[in-house]
Design brief:
8 helices, 5-stranded parallel sheet, 278 residues, alpha/beta
């Protein structure tokens, strides 16, 4: 009986301790938010940005890897969602949810294009220099209304190569339309299309398979028959694309660069790939 009573008392003490710790953590987070010390980077985008579910590991979006680059004063909220375009993200109310949370001093990173290209899907398709720009402007205006900084990010490239090994443009006029809008609206633009294409060409057709979701049969339990995906990234690739986004932050001299904890050009690309585990 005494042992049962002791065990019961021990469990009660542990439970009370857990509640107090949770309450302290919550109050601490609330106090931090009130002080306004945390800058939030909201990410609006598609599956190349979004966090992938465990059932699709080792697939990953670059947005999952961005937070690791910043100190404790910056928090990344990855609100990107698979299959969305600049249009459908808005029409589903996803932008509105971001804007309800957003505060002065935050950032909104915007990358769309992959699904805007789907001509046969009226729920997602946008035309580069008309509806695509019109929808993107809603993100820009919404962020600015909240006192936040919008940053446009041209769509990351797919893995496509010419016969002679040149990385090809896979997004048509969408990157140019986004850059033109950025210039017109005085919005910083990270040209991730150009950056990723340059990186893929540097690596070539074979080595880029390490960045994308290319797996042999039996290599991973989630893909028993293997997979050859030239759009979505292996976690290695997601890390590399996040690095390119950070390069863009530095090149644009955004105030966020003051919160980076390391340089994105610390070591050669081939060294990074060789150090990564599957």
């Amino acid at each position: 009986m005494k042992r049962k009573q002791a065990a019961f008392l021990c469990s009660v003490i542990i439970a009370i301790g857990a509640v107090l710790m949770a309450r302290t953590a919550t109050n601490g987070d609330a106090a931090k938010a009130r002080r306004g010390t945390t800058i939030v980077i909201y990410l609006a985008g598609d599956s190349t940005v979004a966090a992938a579910p465990r059932s699709r590991a080792p697939r990953a979006g670059w947005g999952e890897m961005l937070d690791d680059w910043f100190d404790d004063n910056v928090m990344v909220k990855n609100m990107a969602a698979s299959g969305r375009s600049a249009k459908s993200f808005v029409e589903e109310g996803r932008l509105s949810r971001i804007l309800r949370e957003m505060k002065k001093g935050d950032y909104l990173f915007i990358q769309f294009g992959h699904n805007d290209e789907k001509v046969n899907d009226p729920a997602r398709y946008t035309e580069p220099f008309t509806s695509y720009q019109s929808y993107l402007k809603r993100y820009i205006d919404g962020a600015r209304t909240k006192g936040a900084t919008p940053v446009l990010i041209t769509p990351v490239e797919r893995r496509r190569f010419s016969a002679d090994g040149r990385a090809l443009n896979s997004h048509g006029l969408y990157p140019a339309a986004m850059k033109a809008l950025g210039e017109r609206e005085h919005v910083p633009v990270i040209d991730l299309t150009a950056k990723s294409r340059q990186r893929f060409e540097q690596l070539g057709p074979e080595q880029t398979k390490q960045l994308f979701l290319w797996l042999a049969p039996g290599e991973h339990a989630n893909y028993p028959h293997g997979i050859e995906d030239n759009t979505h990234f292996h976690k290695r690739g997601a890390k590399e694309i996040a690095r390119l986004v950070v390069e863009g932050i530095m090149e644009l001299n955004l105030p966020l660069r003051r919160h980076l904890i390391r340089s994105p050009k610390r070591e050669p690309i081939r060294d990074r790939l060789s150090d990564e585990t599957p």
